[in-house]
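User: Continuing from earlier, I have the next pair ready.

Assistant: Great, send them over.

User: Here they are, in order.

Assistant: Folding the first of the pair now:
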Amino acid sequence: MMKNFFAAMAGVAMLAGCAGAINLPIVGKISNGETAQGTVSIDLATRKGNLTIVTLSGLQCAGTYDASDTMNTITIPVTCNNGQTGVVIATRDATGVAGTATARLKNGMSGRFLFGNVSAQMQADFLK
C-alpha cells in the first residue's frame, strides 16, 4: 500500500508544479472548541515532513517526522510556542497524503484534525 508512496508524492508534486515539495492543508478543533488550521509540508528530496498547526488565538505547535516511514499511523512529537510539548498521532489513508490526526499536549489539551486535499464539505462535516 505505502511502498509506492514516494512515486505518488513525486507525481503529486509534478502535477502541482512544486519543485520537490508538497504542502497539504490541516483543519481541526482543539479541546476548548477553538478552530485550528495548518500545513503538512513534505520535502521529497530529504524525505522530511514538517507539521504546523495554529489556532485562532495564536497557539502554534510544530514538529518534524520521517515522511518515508511506511506505517499508516505515525507519531509526531510537537513543541508549541507556549512551551508545551506533546504528540500528534496521524493516520494516513491509502494515498499516504491525507487522513486524520489526534493531538495531545502534556497539559491535557487535545485536538482532532483532518489533513490532505479534501473537499470543503468534508472539512465542514469534520468540524461539526
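And the other member of the pair:
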Amino acid sequence: MIKYFLRKINADDKVLLFLSSRAFSTLSYPITISLIIAYLTPEEQGYYYTFLTLLSFSMFLELGLGVILTNFASHEFSNLFWSNHNELKGNEKSILRVHSLIKNTIYWFLILALVFIISMLGVGHFLFNESLPNDNISFVWLVFLIVFSPGLIVGPFLSILSGFERIKEVQIIKLLQISISIICLWIALYFKQGIFALVIQFLVQNAISSSYIFFKYRKLLYDSMRSSNNSFNWSTEILPLQLKTGFAWIVTYLGLNLLIPFSFKLFGPVVAGQLGMSFKIAQVVSIVCLAWINTRVPQMGKMVAQNEYKKFLHFFNKTLKSIFLAGIIILILISIFLFASKYLNLQSFNGRILPIRMVLILSIGYFFASLSNYLSMTIRAFKDEKMIIPNFIALIFYIITFYLCYHFNDLNLIVNNFLIINCFILFPSSLFMIKNLFRSKGVL
C-alpha cells in the first residue's frame, strides 16, 4: 500500500531523503514549540522568530544564485562524470569551466557574507535598541550573525554538487544538519540558554556541512582555487540571469520575510511570534513540495543541455502531478490538525498562533506559491527568467499592503494579500510564461 502510494506520487530515494530531513524538522516542531512555550517568554518568542526571519535577508543579497548555480553546474555536468577517486572526468573544457565557476562562487559569497554581517548589524540596532534591560539581545545578535555567515559559503557549494548529480549525498548531509542541530537546540532551550540556543543550533549545523566538504571535496576546492583560467565568465553568464532572478527573490523576501519584522515593529513581539508560528505551520505545504522541486531541477538542466525535450516534458508533467497531489494532502492534514487543536481546546498552543482562518489562508497561499515556484524553476533550467513583470506587480501589491496595514493597523491585510499575490498573480503568470517558453523551444 505504502509502496504503491509512493510510486503514484513519484517519490524516489532522493525525494524520500529530502522529506526525511524536512519530516524530522516538521515532526520535531511540536517539541520545539513546547520548549519555546516552556522556556521562552512571549517577548523572547518574538525575538526568536524575528532572528530566524532576518536570516533570510541573505537570500535577498544572493539574488537567487543558489538555484542558478545548480542549473549551470548541471549543464556542465552533461559532459562530465565522477571517477572512482571522487574526481570529475570528461570534457576538458567543461572541467576548466567548473573550476572557474567554483572559484568565482567562493569569492562572490565571501563578499556577500561580509555585506550580510554589516547590514544586519544595522538592522539589529534599529529593531533591538529598545530591548528590555539586561536582555543583552544586541550581543546575542552579533554572535548569531558570525556563526550563521559561514553557511553562506557552504550552501552554494552544496548547490553546485547537486548540479553534479550528488543530490542524494547532499540530502544525507542536510538530514544530518537538521536532525543534529535541532536536537542541540532542544538541549540548549532545556538548559535555559534562551535566544542563545539559536547560536548553538547554527554553529552545529555549519560545522557538519563544512567538515563534510573539507574531508571529501578538498581536492576539488584546491584545484578550483589555484586555477587561473577564466573560461567561465561570471559577468556575461551568471550576472544577467542573477539580476533577473534576483527580482523574483526580492518579492519572495518581501512576501515571506519582511512580514514578521514589520509586524514586530507595528504590533509588538507577541503578535510577531503568533505570525511566525503560523507561517511555520503553513510553510509545511511548501517544504513538502520542495522535495520534488529541489531534487528534479538538476536533472531538468541536464536534459535541456542534451536537447532531450521529449524526455524532459514527460519528466516535467510527472513532477508537476506529484507536487499537486502532495500539496493537497498536506493542506488537508494541516486543516485536520488545526481543527483538532481547537476541538481539544489546547489553549497553550492556540494562544500562540493566529486564528485558524488566517493560518489556512497562509497555507493555501503556500500551495499556489509552490506551484508557481516549480514552474519558475523549470523556466530557469533553460537559463532564462520570464517572471520579472509578474513579480514587479506583486511587489507593488506588497508595498500597498504595508502602507495600508501601517495606517489601519489590521493584520488581516497582510494575510489576505499573501493569498491574492500567490493565487491570482504569480501562479497564473508562471503558467502562461512556461507554456510560451515550451512552444518557443519546441518542447510542446
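Worth noting for the second one:
The longest helix spans residues 92-128. The beta strands are 80-82, 88-90.
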